[in-house]
Specification:
- There is one protein chain.
- The protein contains two helices and four strands, in the order αββββα.
- By secondary structure, the chain is an alpha+beta fold.
- It has a two-stranded parallel ribbon. It has a two-stranded antiparallel ribbon with strand order 2-3.
- Strand 2 and strand 3 form a beta hairpin.
- It is globular.
- The chain has a single domain, classed as Adenylosuccinate Synthetase, Chain A, domain 1.
Length: 87
Amino acid sequence: MIDAADIVCGLAWGDEAKGKITAWLASRKKYSYVCRWAGGSNAGHTIYVDNIKYKTHIIPDGVFFGIPSIIGPGCVINERKFHEVLK
């Protein structure tokens, strides 16, 4: 069996719905991992899970769906912003 990957990558700065698309894909629970591979805490994604609004900055959307999530190289981590999603 060959594993495959789906990649969500934007071509411009700003809200392109990358987070919403990633959350929708992750909600299908067909993935082994969700990875964030670049960016910093200035990038924000607003997603809804079970009608609850979450604003993420660094957290990969897979955490909301029980999928192991990886913050990879190329990400700048602001510890305060990282913990905000947990509030």
